[in-house]
Design a protein that fits this description.
The chain is an alpha/beta fold. Helix content is 28%, strand content 21%. It binds 2-acetamido-2-deoxy-beta-D-glucopyranose (5 copies).
Amino acid sequence: MSNLLNLVSFGALALAPIAAGAPSDYPTKQCVQLEVTVPVVATNHHFGQPPIDSNITAINWTVNTTTWNYKLPSNPPIVPIDRTFKVHAQLCVPSTKNAKSNILQIATQGRGFDKRYFDIRVQPETYSYLDAAIKRGYPVLTYDRIGLGESEKPDPYDVVQLPAEVEILAGLTKLAKAGKLISSSKVLSNSSPAVKDFVPSKIVQVGHSYGSFIIAPMIVKYGSLADGALLTGFFPNPRLGTVDVSHYDHAYVHDIDPVRWAAYGPGYFILANTLVLQKLFLHKPGFEPALLTYMSEILQPEAVGEYPSGDSLPLPDLHATEFTGPVQISAGAFDFANCKGDCRGQYNATFVENLFPKASNITGYLQPDAGHAMHFSTTAPIGYKAQLDYLNDHGL
Ligand SMILES: *[C@@H]1O[C@H](CO)[C@@H](O)[C@H](O)[C@H]1NC(C)=O
Ligand SMILES: *[C@@H]1O[C@H](CO)[C@@H](O)[C@H](O)[C@H]1NC(C)=O
Ligand SMILES: *[C@@H]1O[C@H](CO)[C@@H](O)[C@H](O)[C@H]1NC(C)=O
Ligand SMILES: *[C@@H]1O[C@H](CO)[C@@H](O)[C@H](O)[C@H]1NC(C)=O
Ligand SMILES: *[C@@H]1O[C@H](CO)[C@@H](O)[C@H](O)[C@H]1NC(C)=O
């Protein structure tokens, strides 16, 4: 049986102090930047999507793939992937040894963001998940998914797809579990020598949105690569999928800024402006305008291949039979992208129980006042506390 926190209690929670103790009691973070070479074997598909090489073709694609009678190709040709990818990652560890020092969190962000989603630098004491997790003593690995940030940007049609991204996360997790992350990477920063390879005793997979959609099938395939999961921006409900890409405004990267996006080519597009960012990610009152500006500054392109490959994932037919840890499912209470604007009372516990049949605990949680990008909401600290308390309460 799952449990959805009663929203009535949120008023009281919001007023409660976030954490006790003087700031000096908390560990600080020491980080290293890495270029990890991840070997990947995966089965992608050729979906034959309309080309995207201008604003006009971006919208042509949008209209084509959201037309009411559009169907994903039923037997798309297989594109075998057997190669390595260069993935940019950051490992941060707390400055002091503590009860959580050996529980590694690996965080996977959603579409439109790189790893900075988890480390917002506007008022980081409020908004940075990374800093919140470090304060509670957890080491954290963040990385840029392929096709954005400082990771490599391969063919956005046939290569940047969900199956390859599932294997990249599995590959990173295996390296981290074996204590070989740093030793098998090119170390890009000569920051703190305190950050050394260590063999974590436990792994927690943390996702936002599309990142959570990568983690779920990863756990289905490799149950031993997660001892627990925080799936944020992921909230099975009757409206899931109704906010399709016709609600987005995707512009072609070079028609937006050919200099800034010079490393990207056809097949990469990006959310066009702050209007669509607010619509998809934020909820009023629950965000500060400065955070919308910051979001547009760190916004990343998206690879078109993630859409048909993500949409073909048969989540209701998947069962993570080897995963026995706790999993918290969460969203902003007013998540437009997931719940068409109001998630309250909409949680489909059956869906999640089917997906994680052996989980030790499944809990649904709604972050008050937040939209889809929960971390950009003024209630982010309440959400982080709920997430980190959840892990602690379940032995992680
Ligand atoms: C799952 O854990 C939460 C606390 O994190 C608890 O309230 C809930 O009762 C647990 N669910 C079950 C079925 O034990
Ligand atoms: C969408 O694209 C597919 C493949 O190019 C095409 O067969 C279909 O007719 C298009 N749909 C519309 C409504 O144009
Ligand atoms: C527009 O999309 C259609 C599919 O709907 C495709 O057949 C056509 O080639 C596209 N046109 C351009 C200019 O990309
Ligand atoms: C493409 O669309 C974006 C968003 O509306 C706009 O800022 C840009 O000027 C357009 N570029 C071209 C070349 O049309
Ligand atoms: C909840 O999920 C289950 C399993 O996927 C599905 O059969 C059911 O129709 C869903 N319920 C609602 C109300 O969407």
